[in-house]
Amino acid sequence: MDTDTTIRAIVDKHEAVYRGDSPYNNAITAMATRDLAQISESDVVNVVERFLYDWGKMGRVLGQERFSGWQGKVAQIIQSNSGILKQFQNRNIEYENLSNHKHEIVMLYEAFKGATWQIASAKILNLICPNFFPLWDNGIANALRVELAHLEGYSFDKSIEDFSGEDYFRFMDGTKLFISRHSDVLSTLSNQYQQRKLRIIDECFWWVVRRPFSLIF
Question: Running DSSP on this structure, what letter comes out for residue 154?
């Protein structure tokens, strides 16, 4: 079975089970109606928190004392960086030279990571800019950690919590490469299921984490 056929089989199965992924899509739609420059802590609670807790299953992590008050911090980060985030809302990872935006990507990831942890950071970025910032979770980040250790020859001692904006930028580069290699099937599935490509790819990466990440990088 070639990779495109495997991608289709994975996505078909996922969509059959979750039937359109309404909680994810509803959150994306709700976030798009918020004025980022004026976003309030209440907006974060009603949209971002619900997204992270109900869809992202992150209540146990963000409920820890060290993340106390994260909602207010996230509102401040969004307000402070609303101009940059609005630009990325209108950009698509597929057509961008990511190197031109590396500073902003790393800065935004690190800012949200400081308030919410590295997995939530990527989820928040995707929630705000769903065509530009890819999702990841513990399984995907773990697989990337193993693969980077292998490719770059460093000891296997880098925990997920050590993942930096530079690591997330590399993940974005890998995601863009994945799109370029499988553009036709991803476009077909995106149209068929009315899902953004980055969400289709996230479904695929659930499979990839059980294989060497060199399939992408």
Answer: -
